[in-house]
Amino acid sequence: MRVGLLFPGEMGAAVGNAVRGEVLWASEDRSEATVARAAAFTDAGSVEELVRSSDVVLSICPPAIAEETAKRVFGLGFDGLYVEANAISPSRMRRIAQLGPRVVDGSIIAAKGINLYLAGDEAQSAAGLFEGNDVKAIPLDAEIGAASALKMAFGGWNKIGIALTAQAHAIAGAYRVTDWLDAEGVPADRLQHVADRAWRWAPEMEEIADLCGELGLSDGIPRGAAAFYRNLSDERG
């Protein structure tokens, strides 16, 4: 089994290393950091060659380019198993599922280990790629969109919570009452440890806001979190 990995970022490389089979990646136009993360994989050179040589394509990329990436892969004639494992809304996931004959809805939650949730008709087939490895593949008895919805639910709760916690500690710090905030059970500020991810969290918050709109829920909180993370990303350059 040859599995093409798009693209081996920090999480993508971790998932790729757990695949049972040969993992291919494309080094064309990638950074030195990506090359280092992909050292254990087979370099196909270009995305075109990766698609041509792969039985399965595993897409783990920034959510803002997930649909564009899928269109490119299927535009190259790919007819194998496509595992869409990005932080996108169910509606975007359903659009991607229309692009090819064999598409699995996937979402990664790494709060405790790495859990890969999978939905759709071929969820079990995708789960078989990870049997006995560090990534726990969890097929859901659900239609396309369910795994993405789970990611939206968890991502909103987790990442909006991080933003709110940072705000709370900033207020308390300004008035030198942080010790008392801690005593009230407000968790430690984690933002400093994850701020380098703000550039890709902002689009994820927009995906959550879109889903809230579809469900008739207020989208103000995730839109505000998206603006918060965009500003943070801009400040960090």
General description of the model:
The chain contains eleven helices and eight strands. The protein is α/β, with parallel strands linked by helices and 237 residues long. The protein has helices at 10-16, 32-37, 47-53, 66-75, 90-97, 123-127, 146-174, 178-183, 191-194, 198-214, 220-236, and strands at 2-6, 22-25, 42-43, 56-59, 81-84, 103-109, 114-119, 135-139. The N and C termini lie far apart (40 Å). Strand 6 (103-109) and strand 7 form a beta hairpin. The mean pLDDT is 96. Strands 3-2-1-4-5-6-7-8 form an eight-stranded mixed β-sheet, with helices on both faces. Helices cover 49% and strands 16% of the residues. Helix 7 packs across helix 10, helix 7 (146-174) crosses helix 11 (220-236) and helix 10 (198-214) packs antiparallel against helix 11.
Give a brief outline of the structure.
The protein is α/β, with parallel strands linked by helices and 237 residues long.
Radius of gyration: 19 Å
Strand coverage percent: 15-25%
Major β-sheet annotation: 8 strands, mixed
- What is the molecular shape? globular
H/E element order: EHEHEHEHEHEEHEHHHHH
Helix content bin: 40-55%
Poorly predicted runs are none
Descriptors:
eight-stranded mixed beta sheet, 237 residues, 11 helices, single chain, globular, alpha/beta
Question: What's the SSE blueprint?
Answer:
Layout: E1 2-6, H1 10-16, E2 22-25, H2 32-37, E3 42-43, H3 47-53, E4 56-59, H4 66-75, E5 81-84, H5 90-97, E6 103-109, E7 114-119, H6 123-127, E8 135-139, H7 146-174, H8 178-183, H9 191-194, H10 198-214, H11 220-236
Parallel strand pairs: 1-2, 1-4, 2-3, 4-5, 5-6, 7-8
Antiparallel strand pairs: 6-7
Helix pairs in contact: 7-10, 7-11, 10-11
